[in-house]
Amino acid sequence: MLTLSVPPVLGEQKILQASPEAARWFEDAKFGMFVHWGLYTLRALGERSPAKFNPTEFNAREWVSMAKKAGIRYITITSKHHEGFCLFDSKLTDFDIVDATPFKRDVLKELAVECHKQGIKLFFYYSQLDRHHPDYKPDDKDTWAQYKAYYIGHVRELCTNYGEIGGLWFDGWWANPNADWGHNELYNMIHTFQPNAMVGNNHHRQPFPGEDFQTYEQDLPGENTAGFNKAAIYNLPLETCRTINDHWGYDKNDRNHKSTEHLIRYLVQVVGRGANLLLNTGPMPDGKILPEHVERYLGIGKWLAKNGEAIYGTRRGPYPPSPWGVSVWKGQNVYLHILEWPGETLDLPPLPRGCHVKSAKLLHGSRLKFSADEKAVKLFLPESAKDPVDVIVVLTIEGDLRKAEVRGEGQE
Questions:
Q1: Last residue of a domain, which of 310, 328, 357?
Q2: pLDDT tens, position by position, 264-313
Q3: How many structural domains compose the chain?
């Protein structure tokens, strides 16, 4: 098992981190909603002009209320994507939703107000890459210093104009990895203004000092099916971001929406690896979320309303991900999420020394017969327990389960 620690200092400069309480909240949350929205949604209309961006159907209360019903704990929205257009009212540019569009409303302000009302944390995605700003020239020392001041100024606005935020989610570093991005200054500024803000960066590398969580893009932690998630798993809270269909932003021709059942099982796989699932939607140009995506979010929420005990607040369990499924633990319970039916018995390795199985039962059903000794744990599963999505078994344990938490497999 490989987990690596991120150094808290660089040289003599102390790099601040989010509070331990914030990190614990993040690890407990398990389910977030990613929102990719901006001028690029107009591609469906053959446009990219801010003058055509007028999402009159946008309703922050509808978005947040839907998220809450879906069991979502936090929303991460693109405050500025690679195109450089801001979904907030910035004093540093007119290339924003208030100054450049007929809509003239600060989307982030409305979302922040509604998230605070409904108890959902709000994270801001921010792309360090900017294809619009004239000073975005990493090889030009003078203009780069101006761009760096510009983008850090943007983040300062995001940290000071929207009340308490859940965190910052950075992207685009990978476009110029050798540039001087000023991360020490940036992260210390964020943690000074927002001590509870969690900072992450989608750079697919070892986390930098000052980052509070590690994110994987379209991949389970420790896997690299996408081809760019090459970093080992570090000893930070983890997150996987994933699309419902094939695109991050709205694409009217993309009808390849994953089923609700598939997404629930993926959520379970993510949680079984100790991570959160940040499930993405790309709202339409008019400001509405696709009905197909609303249906899937609410379907997941219905499942979580029944089974959330085995998801929220859990940590990686004593049994690593296996062909049959995953395990998590919370309190004195180990939850086995059986995703592939093993037959009438499930054979497991013994628990760590000092931990003993007291009882076994289905989460919403009867007690199960089991046997356990120093060599193995064997569960007897009735055919009636079969479920096409997830069979959840609860093992009540005597002993200190903190010793039983597994860490993910590292991958260089």
A1: 310
A2: 999 999 999 999 999 999 999 999 999 999 999 999 999 999 999 999 99
A3: 2
Looking at residue 265, its amino acid is R
134 within 8 A of 142, measured Cβ to Cβ = no
Please say if the pLDDT value at position 5 is more than 80. no
The amino acid at 153: G
Domain boundary among 264, 293, 310: 310
Decide the pairing of beta strands 377-380 and 325-330. unpaired
Sheet containing 325-330: order of strands: 315-316, 325-330, 333-338, 391-398, 356-362
Cα distance between the two ends of the chain? 13
Domain that holds residue 347: 315-404
Question: What residues contact 258, with CB distance under 8 A and at least 6 apart?
Answer: 244, 245, 266, 296
State the DSSP string of 6-40. PPSEETTEE-----HHHHHHHHHH-EEEEE--SGG
**Together in a domain, 242 and 322:** no
Rounded Cα distance between 275 and 26, Å, is: 9
- pLDDT tens track for 371-399: 998 899 999 999 999 999 999 999 999 99
Residue 158: count other Cβ atoms within 10 Å of its Cβ: 24
